[in-house]
Every structure is written in structure tokens, then in C-alpha cells.
Specification:
Number of domains: 2
Pfam family, one: TetR_N
Helix content: over 70%
Largest sheet: none
Keywords: DNA-binding, Transcription, Transcription regulation
CATH topology of the largest domain: Tetracycline Repressor, domain 2
DNA-binding region: 34-53
Structural class: mainly alpha
Number of strands: 0
Protein name: TetR/AcrR family transcriptional regulator
Order of helices and strands: HHHHHHHHHH
Domain HTH tetR-type: 11-71
Length: 202
């Protein structure tokens, strides 16, 4: 007879699947990670795994969403704790974002072309559109917060989103650049980001 899981059991299992999935994705990459190994870690059958996630790519996306929320909260907290001119704070915000992108193991995974292609094959277009919209809403909220504090004037969130999209693309393609080229490209994007964000500062 199949085991009945309570709501608390389900929450615990999902949390454990996310944690084990992160460890296995980090060690083996997207294509090398095996669902059965994660299930063994958590102590559940593969059938139970598929009650939570349609496939391992869905688990990857759930972990990515969790980490995205964590990073955004940390970056906002970091910015709010900074002092000094808004341009300096914007620059440090950008630097913090670069650090997050460079150090997150999931970013390193999707920087592998075959892993990224495998993820895209299993990601519905609607999900991709949702992620883009979610990021834009975050930027809108961020800019609105700065404006309400009197730090900036009107800023087009689409401009900021475009700059940050270029940054993510640059990080994902880092292996194609020399160290000097990559650093110079980041510096240029940083300057554009600060200029666009603070051009209307009082």
C-alpha cells in the first residue's frame, strides 16, 4: 500500500529534495545528475520524486527560483545598508550582483552549453516569459523604492533589465573571453548601469 504523506511530510520531502538536488547538480551538472541518487539521499522512491517534480529539470528550476529569491533579498538588503552618494551605492549594487552570478553553482551549470540546451528543451516558453516578467517586476520595485527615497528620478526599468540581461549573458559566456576582456566588459556594463540608474538623481 502506498504510504500516505501528511502536508508536513510533503513540505519536508520537498525541502530535502531541493537540498539534495542542489548538492548533486553542483557535483555532477544537469545532465550528470541522477534522480535515483537524490531519492536515495532523501529516502523516498522515484515515484515520490515525480509527485513533486515532473523531471529533474523541473527540480533544477525550483532550486534556481529559490536561490533567485534569496539573492534578490540579499542584494536589496545590501543596498539598503550602503551609504554615500547614490552612484557609489549603485556601483556596489552592481558589484554584488556580479559576485552572486560568479559564485552561484547553478549559474556555472547553465554556462555549460549542453546543460543549458538540455534545460531549455524542458522549459516551456511560458515559464521563460514568466521569469523575464518576474525580473522586470523586481527591477521596477527596486527603482520605485529608490525614487520614493528621493535618490533617483524617473528611470526606465526596461533599460536596467536590458543591462542586467547583458551582464548575465556575459557571465554565461565568460569562457569565451580573456580575463582582461571579461573584466573590461564588466566595467563598461557597470558604468552604463550606474549612469542609467542615476542620471535623473536629484
Amino acid at each position: 500500500m502506498p504510504r500516505h504523506f501528511t502536508a508536513a511530510d510533503n513540505e519536508l520531502i520537498r525541502t530535502q529534495l531541493l537540498a539534495s538536488g542542489l548538492a548533486h547538480f553542483t557535483q555532477y551538472g544537469l545532465r550528470g545528475m541522477r534522480v535515483e541518487d537524490v531519492c536515495k539521499d532523501v529516502g523516498v522512491a522515484k515515484g515520490t520524486f515525480y509527485k513533486f517534480f515532473e523531471h529533474k529539470e523541473a527540480l533544477f528550476l525550483a532550486i534556481a527560483d529559490q536561490r533567485d529569491q534569496m539573492h534578490k533579498a540579499e542584494i536589496i538588503a545590501f543596498f539598503s545598508q550602503c551609504d554615500g552618494p547614490v552612484a557609489d551605492r549603485a556601483g556596489r549594487f552592481f558589484d554584488q550582483l556580479v559576485e552572486k552570478l560568479m559564485s552561484d553553482p547553478l549559474v556555472a551549470i547553465i554556462a555549460v552549453p549542453d546543460d543549458f540546451a538540455a534545460l531549455l528543451r524542458k522549459t516551456p516558453p511560458a515559464r521563460l516569459a514568466h521569469e523575464e516578467e518576474k525580473d522586470l517586476r523586481f527591477i521596477e520595485t527596486f527603482c520605485a523604492g529608490l525614487k520614493s527615497e528621493g535618490l533617483i528620478g524617473d528611470v526606465d526599468p526596461h533599460d536596467i533589465a536590458a543591462i542586467l540581461t547583458l551582464l548575465v549573458s556575459l557571465v554565461l559566456q565568460k569562457s569565451l573571453f580573456s580575463a582582461g576582456q571579461f573584466a573590461a566588459s564588466c566595467t563598461i556594463l557597470r558604468e552604463i548601469f550606474v549612469q542609467k540608474l542615476t542620471a535623473s538623481a536629484p
